[in-house]
Amino acid sequence: MKKFVQWYAKYPGILLSILLLIKIVIFRQVAIHDLSLWGVVSDLAAMICLIALPAIFIRGKAKMVIQYIIAGILSLIWFATSIYYSYYGSIPTYLTLTHMNQVGQISESVTSAIEPYMILYFADFILLPLMTMIWGSKLQVRTHYWSARTKKQRPKLRALIIFALSLIVCGTIVFTSRDIENEHALANRLGVITYQFVVLGQGKTNSGGGMTEEERAQSLAQIQEWFADRNVSDNSMYHGVAEGRNLIVVQLESFQNFVIGLKVGDQEVTPNLNALIQDSFYFPRMYQQIGEGNTSDAEFILNTGVYPLGAPNMSSFVGGKNVPSLPRTLATKGYDSYTFHVNDVSFWNRDEMYPALGFNEYFDSKSFVNDHFNSFGASDKEFYKVTLEHFEQFKKKEQPFYAQLITTSSHHPFVVPKEDQHLVLPSSYADTQLGNYLQAIRYTDEQLGIFIQQLKDAGIWEQSMIAIYGDHSGLQTKENDPAWVSEQLGIPYHDTISRLNIPFILSIPGVEGEIIDTIAGQVDMLPTIYNVLGIDTDDHTQALFGTDLLNTETNIVGLRYYMPAGTFFNDNILFVPGLGFNDGVATDLKTLENVDIGSDLRSDYDYIMELMQMSDLYSRQLPMK
């Protein structure tokens, strides 16, 4: 052991590289279940580059310290990536990891994602210092190793050669992967570290702020020309049926559609939403389209009708910009716009997004009494209580208002206080995420039902229309095998189709609704809302990348970030690309079985890729204030 420590003191870079290789194998085998040779080699080469770099310029103990620090940072990256992947199912970019300062506000979710194997990422930082303390005083380090000029240069030359060879390996893998359209497959092939440099090189953080007015005008002209070639239906059905009414939007946290109408035993999981749907427009085939920003991206999509970029999160991206939006459009109709959220407004940079979208005022954690319902703070009960008080003040202004409400009580890990668990579940649900999720959804539904009744009692309901939707999925695959969920609930549950399916409900008092079975995405919500409010969008002052769901019978919606770019739902099929289109997988939405890829899917795939490119172009040309 003494010789081992002595060798480690002499060649720390080699040992650190071996230990990091072990961590790569652990990460790929246990965390992402993809022990592909390309990914392992790419990540190992990238890490050897980083470990070898200090040895080119620095010698002595300082080199060892810096290499040790680099190894520590890489271990932290593996740890953070493993937690992120276990929750979201994708490899994060460096942009995502820059938001680690917000972990405290979702501490329960992060803690629940930590697994015992993750301690192995830091085992060497416990054992190696311990061994050095035990045997370090007995070591006789050969200080003459650095004395001769020729020997002083050899380590630098050796490090330079190792660095260059590793860099060539990384470059070769990146070059041979250039035709991969699926960014998930690309990340797995390149490995975590190399992928970060590719993301940086692709300029995904380019905000478009450097565009000249001429370039911006050309971009808008290109977008408008593209839209002019589309077959856009007129807004003849239900146009203006809610004109002049208050608009209340409720975004339900982690709310999947399968819970609507679901019974456990003889208990309805969502009795209030079930009742509301009877007199509302209900869109049961809507799918999430969020990117890195998760809940905040859902807010952005609702207010803009634009696809998120995927990465970075849109709340950061639009900071300091002037974004055409629902609040700005409603302002021309005499509306004031407000948004409510029990988190601190800085969470996901909402303090930058809300001004960019044109909200008049926001109400965050300081507006609510923290009853410590979960790590987010105030419960939905407290949230709706305070919101209603503000609504009553808005009513006195005798002008219409728009309010977006962001609920949090059904946030992961879905643990609600015992006194708020009102479902009696079978023993098979005990200590499962599914059981916790159903309890949280039931509580969310109960509080929403109480809020709706309070709106009626306050005389606000009849003057308003209400839109309700889920922001994104809730159940995690790793804790909820689809076959087991299907068996427990007695319904078909598909890992992708059911998980990404969220509800959208539009209730207009006095207007008889219906169930609209059209395929839909979150970008379709705003065009639909504009239609019933009687707002014309033909002047192209705001580009909408969705469809009015009340005036279309067929639709195609794209997904990205949590699914590979190019993933789409059409009326009958979910298509998920492989490395590209040709090796993709098509799943029938009714049978949930894989089917052959028809030639018609190619045109749908090309359309969605082009649509999202146009959406990205639109986002990048947004002007600064």
Structural topology:
Layout: H1 2-10, H2 12-31, H3 37-57, H4 61-88, H5 94-97, H6 107-113, H7 124-135, H8 149-176, H9 183-190, H10 192-201, H11 213-228, E1 246-252, E2 263-264, E3 267-268, H12 271-277, E4 281-287, H13 295-304, H14 314-317, H15 326-331, E5 336-341, H16 350-357, E6 361-363, H17 380-396, E7 401-406, H18 433-457, E8 464-470, H19 482-489, E9 501-507, E10 520-521, H20 525-532, E11 557-559, E12 567-569, E13 573-576, E14 585-588, E15 594-595, H21 599-620
Parallel strand pairs: 1-7, 1-8, 4-10, 5-6, 5-7
Antiparallel strand pairs: 2-3, 4-9, 8-9, 11-12, 12-13, 13-14, 14-15
Helix pairs in contact: 1-2, 2-3, 2-4, 3-4, 3-8, 3-9, 9-10, 11-21, 17-18
Gyration radius over CA: 27 Å
- Mind telling me which CATH architecture of the largest domain this is? 3-Layer(aba) Sandwich
Give the CA-based shape: globular
* CATH structural class of the largest domain: Alpha Beta
User: What's the CATH topology name of the largest domain?
Assistant: Alkaline Phosphatase, subunit A
Could you say which structural class the secondary elements and strand pairing correspond to?
Answer: alpha/beta
Number of extended strands: 15
Provide mean pLDDT, rounded: 87
Distance between the termini: 64 Å
What is the CATH superfamily label of the largest domain? Alkaline Phosphatase, subunit A
**Low-confidence runs:** 137-150
User: What profile does the largest beta sheet have?
Assistant: 8 strands, mixed
Helical residues, percent: 40-55%
- What percentage of amino acids are in beta strands? 5-15%
Number of helices, where a helix is a run of at least 4 consecutive DSSP H or I residues: 21
The domain count comes to 2
Instruction: Write out the strand line-up for the largest beta sheet, numbering strands in chain order.
Output: 6-5-7-1-8-9-4-10
